[in-house]
Amino acid sequence: MQKQKKQMIVLVILLILLILAYIGVHFYSKKQEEKENAKEEAEKIQVTDLEVSDITQFSYVLDGTTLSFTKNGTEWTYDGDQSVDIDESALETLLNKASAITASDEVTEYDDLADFGLDDPANTVTLKTDSGLTTIYIGSQNEITNEYYLKTGDSDTIYVVDSAPATGFDKSIEDLTAKADDTETEAEEPSEAVDETETATVVPNETEAVETEETK
Prior knowledge:
The protein has about 220 residues and is of the alpha+beta class. It has two domains: about 1-45; about 45-165, Sandwich (Immunoglobulin-like). About 35% of the residues lie in helices and about 25% in strands. It is built from five helices and ten strands, in the order H-E-E-E-E-H-E-E-E-E-E-E-H-H-H. The chain has helices at about 1-45, 90-100, 165, 195-200, 205-215; strands at about 45, 55-60, 65-70, 75-80, 100-105, 105, 125-130, 130-140, 150, 160. The strands form two sheets. The chain has an eight-stranded antiparallel sheet with strand order 4-3-2-7-8-9-10-6. A two-stranded antiparallel sheet has the order 1-5. It is elongated. Residues about 180-190, about 190-200 and about 205-215 have low confidence and may be disordered. This is DUF4340 domain-containing protein. It holds the Pfam family DUF4340. Keywords: Membrane, Transmembrane, Transmembrane helix.
């Protein structure tokens, strides 16, 4: 009996040690992950850093045509046709992509912009704020890493970015037009309930019918 108690105590102690070891490994892994994420963030190169709310004009090129937009008060309008009802949420998605671009690497020494597809950019994006105009030139894709080359108008540095900021500006005006609410208010169906007083058949009481006959 005494031996069984000792074995039980040993097992409980081992279980506690295993739990403590698991907790320790879990927290260590979490700390390491946080350090790695912090390191990656620190190594990222900030290409553009603008507040979306500060942007007053925005443009990009689609199929050779420049689509430009202007913010009037709190609403965006399409410069090509101000009657178009712009989908603010869809446009803001594009603004978010352009206003906070980060790069994984940069190239400061090169011979020719053509090596990066920046002699004739695939797209040119502009963002205007009260502080000035930011121009973003998007070049070609690196076939090995699948990343893209990008350059801003105020710098000779070429940045290496992922596909999100490079390929996201492919929305047509139709894509950015607010859609009508598909759910229409259904017309109220006429009530099928019929007034009971209109349809009820009045059946005379038998005693009343007898009395009526006797009085005749």
